[in-house]
Amino acid sequence: xKIRIFVTLKNGVLDPQGKAIHHALESLDFKGxxxxxxxxxxxxxxxxxxxxxDIEKMCEKLLANTVxxxxxxxxxTDQAAREA
Length: 84
Known about the structure:
Elements: E1 2-9, H1 16-27, E2 39-45, H2 52-63, E3 69-74, H3 76-83
Antiparallel strand pairs: 1-2, 1-3
């Protein structure tokens, strides 16, 4: 089963990578971009029996720094609903 983990910085945390992307877009003359926040996408291929609790523990212990980052878990049912 494929699981997607989206990791983003919490509001109020400075995002130097996002600022650099924003500046680069402006220098390439793209208009209308007000702000950029950069994040990470982590894809896991896990056994079908892997519990939601275990996936959350993976995020909390390794995949996201929960002091400054949020994470969102997307399961196959979520993925299918978004594609429909």
